[in-house]
Amino acid sequence: MNAYLTSVIDNVKKKYANQPEFVQTVEEVLTSVEPVINAHPEYEKLDLLNRMVEPERQFTFRVCWMDDQGNYHTNTGYRFQFNGALGPYKGGLRFHPSVYPGIIKFLGFEQVFKNSLTGLPIGGGKGGSDFDPRGKSDAEIMRFCQSFMNALYRYIGPDIDVPAGDIGVGGREIGYLFGQYRRLKGSFENGVLTGKGETYGGSLIRPEATGFGAVYYLTEVLNHENDPIAGKTIAISGFGNVSWAVCRKATELGAKVVTLSGPDGYIYDPDGVNTQEKFDYMVEMRASGRDKVQDYADKFGCQFFPGEKPWGVKADVMMPCATQNDVTLPWAEKMVANGLKYYIEVANMPTTNEALFYLMKQPGMIVAPSKAVNAGGVAVSALEMSQNSERLHWTAEEVDQQLKHIMHNIYQMSVDAAAEYGLGYNLVAGANIAGFKKVATAMVEQGVF
Ligand code: 2IT
C-alpha cells in the first residue's frame, strides 16, 4: 500500500485506539482512495490526509436538565465541525446512550465525503449527546433540547454550522432546538437547523428524503442490471423515520418490505409493510418512545423473533436502515449462502469492514455504500437551506424531482469515478473517490491550515 496512506492509518489507529468506530471509517475510506493518493504525490508534502482525519474544531459541553419529578440529570453534548472546505458544516445530531467522541467522529468523517458527493455546498459535521430519549416525556425532551441549545447556540449559524436530526432527533426535537435558538438570538434565522416543521421553514419531503433517496438509488442499481424493482422483496432493519420512508417508496414502486427490526428483535410480515395503516403505525411506534418493534407484530398478527436480526431471511434486497455495525461477518456469510444479490447500505456504516470487504469480493453481488445511498437526506437538508435563504417554499413535487436528480448524479459520479481509476463497477470505491476528490481539491486550493 502507498506508504503515506499507511502511515496516516497507523497514526489514527495508534492515536484513537479508544475510538474503534472512527478507526473503522478512516480505514474504509482511505484504503478506497489509494489510487487517488498514488496519482497525487503532492498530498504528502501538504500532509493532506492527516489534516483530513483531524476535525477542524470539536466542542464538548455539559447539558444539565430537569426531569418531571424535579430531579436534575447531567449529560455530555458534542458538536464536532469536521471539515468546512466545501461550505458550512452540515450534519445531524444523535441522541443515544451509545454516543461518545468515537461515534461523533465516525459520523462526522463519513458526513464530509457524503456531503461532497451530493454536489451541494456543504461541509461536514456531527453532534449529539449520550442522552437517552427512551421513555422520556415530551416535557423532559423539551427541557433537554433547550438546555442542549443553551450551550450549542454559540457555535452554530446559517453560514457557520447547520445541524439536523439523526437517531433520537426528529421533527419534534428540531422544533424545540429551533425555538430555543430563536429565543437566545432574538432573530429568526431558520437556516440554522434543517428538518424543521413546515410552518417555520421546513422543506417538504425532508422527512421522507433519506428513505426515498435510498430507494431511488436502489432503482439506479437495478436499472443497471435490467432488473425491475416491481415484485422485489426487501429485508430492512430499523423501524424509524428512514425505514418508514423506504417502506412507502418501495410499496409505491411495487416492491415489498418484509422485515422491520428494533433493539428487541425483528418482525417478519410476509404480506409486506405496505398499507397506509402500517405506515401510520410505524410513526406511532416511534412516537411512543418505547423503542419496541414487537408492537407491530402484536398489532398486525405477524411473527416476532425476539433478540434476533433479520439478515437470515430470504429476500432479493437487504437494506440495513438502523445503526452502525448491524451486519457482521457471520450475517454476511448467511446472506451469501442465501444467494443475495443486492446489498444496499442505508444507515451510516451498518456493516463491519470485515463483512463489507467479504461481500464486495463475492462475484455477482452488488454492494452499495451508505454514504451514497443515504445522501438524499442531507441533500434535501441543503435544499431546505436554499429555500430558507431565499425565503421560498418549494412544492413537494419540486423537491422530489430534485432529490431524484441528485440521487441519479450520486450514482453516476460513483460509477464514473471507479471506472476512471480502473476499478470496474465498484460503487463503494467510486463513492469514496468522488467524495474525496472534491474535498481534497478545495483544501489544496484554500492553502494550508
Ligand atoms: O447522516 C445524515 O446524513 C443525517 N443524519 C442528516 C444530516 C442532515 O444535515 O440532514
Ligand types: (2Z)-2-iminopentanedioic acid
- By oligomeric state, this entry counts as single chain
| Total helical segments | 18
Describe the strand arrangement of the main beta sheet, using strand numbers: 1-2-4-3-5
Quick one: overall form? globular
Site (Important for catalysis): 166
Domain Glutamate/phenylalanine/leucine/valine/L-tryptophan dehydrogenase C-terminal: 203-447
Organism: Candidatus Avoscillospira avicola
Protein name: Glutamate dehydrogenase
Question: Which secondary structure elements does this structure contain, and how are they paired or packed?
Answer:
Layout (H helix, E strand, L loop, with lengths): L2 H13 L4 H13 L1 H6 L2 H4 L2 H5 L4 E10 L5 E12 L5 E7 L5 H17 L5 E7 L8 H15 L8 E5 L5 H15 L20 H19 L8 E4 L4 H12 L3 E2 L1 E4 L2 E4 L7 H13 L5 H7 L2 E4 L10 E3 L9 H9 L4 E3 L8 H9 L4 E3 L1 H4 L1 H15 L6 H25 L6 H19 L4
Parallel strand pairs: 3-4, 3-5, 6-7, 6-11, 11-12, 12-13
Antiparallel strand pairs: 1-2, 2-4, 8-9, 9-10
Helix pairs in contact: 1-2, 2-6, 6-18, 7-8, 9-10, 9-16, 9-17, 10-11, 13-14, 16-17, 17-18
Bound molecules: (2Z)-2-iminopentanedioic acid.
What would you note in describing this structure?
With 449 residues, the chain is of the alpha/beta class. The chain contains 18 helices and 13 strands. It has helices at 3-15, 20-32, 34-39, 42-45, 48-52, 101-117, 138-152, 171-185, 206-224, 241-252, 276-288, 294-300, 329-337, 353-361, 370-373, 375-389, 396-420, 427-445, and strands at 57-66, 72-83, 89-95, 123-129, 161-165, 233-236, 256-257, 259-262, 265-268, 303-306, 317-319, 342-344, 366-368. The strands form three sheets. A five-stranded mixed β-sheet has the order 1-2-4-3-5. A five-stranded parallel β-sheet has the order 7-6-11-12-13, sandwiched between helices. Helix 2 (20-32) packs parallel to helix 6 (101-117). The longest helix is centred in the C-terminal third of the chain and has 25 residues, at 396-420. The mean pLDDT is 98. The structure holds (2Z)-2-iminopentanedioic acid. (2Z)-2-iminopentanedioic acid binds at residues 90-92, 164, 166, 194, 348, 374, 377-378, 381. Substrate binds at residues 90, 111, 114, 165, 381. One of its GO terms (molecular function) is glutamate dehydrogenase (NADP+) activity. Homohexamer.
